[in-house]
Amino acid sequence: MTAKIVTFGISKGGCSKSTSSGITSFLLSNEERVLAIDMDGQGNLTSFLTGEYDICNVFEDRTILEAILQGDARPYIIKVKENLDLIPANDFLATLPRKMFDKGLNLDALQNALKPVMEDYDWIIIDTPPALSEQTVMPLSTSSEAGSYAVVMFDGSMFAYYAIPKFLEIIEGAKERYNPSLQTAGVLFSLIDARAKENEVMIEAVDEDYPDMKFNTIIKRKASTRRLAIEGFEGNAELKNALEYYIPFVKELKERVSQKQPQRSN
Ligand SMILES: Nc1ncnc2c1ncn2[C@@H]1O[C@H](COP(=O)(O)OP(=O)(O)O)[C@@H](O)[C@H]1O
Ligand SMILES: [Mg+2]
Fold first, then answer.
1. Where is the AAA domain positioned along the sequence (predicted)?
2. How far is the CA of 5 from the centre of ligand 1 (A)?
3. In this structure, is residue 169 part of a structural domain?
């Protein structure tokens, strides 16, 4: 079985990309084999899944940067728990574009690094930075026979509203140029600023602009979800509460992915 790839993105920060990709990886790994990949030098997904915040030292020379440059992900995979592996990131990921240039690598560099492990997983879940740079374009350009999907994160803000069409354009570009198997799984509303009255207006606007793209599940703000970054998943007494909105989301994601057959280029 080849892994399905799901990339979480949007060029605005604070839209719950790292939290959502981390929780999705965790939940999927209850039943299937998951590789989570951190493509953001902030290393938030890395910290979220490992509880380790000293990422520069702890993961020195053991990150997605080295995996891409070496063209082989295998030596850089760490085990988080049963069925859940991670390729970490740290601040040195900022040097990726220059090092790729020096080595003459192109946007298929992540694809090449992942080739040896594609059969080892059911899902590869990728967190991206709030930028439309190589670190976002490369995951979107990575194809799989089982399909490659993008989840567009939206936090209900005006800034994110205007970031959506730009991210969709990047998705279209990656699909046309590098990855015909790429499809948009949907827009995930993570309304973590529950106080904002404008949310309703923004939900309607996005629904009207992008019909049928919104996941039915809307992630709402929860202190227990926020505390996952502190408490972790293991032995967390409020875990059930923290995951409440994500359980139906992951169910929906799986349904959408199984309905969207990979498109074959002919
Ligand atoms: N459902 C939620 N409820 C409460 N806080 C959340 C929720 N989702 C994310 N957060 C918090 O919001 C902030 C931004 O989330 P994060 O996942 O880092 O976004 P991004 O990766 O898009 O920048 C973090 O402090 C995170 O803990
Ligand atoms: Mg993040």
1. 4-183
2. 22
3. yes
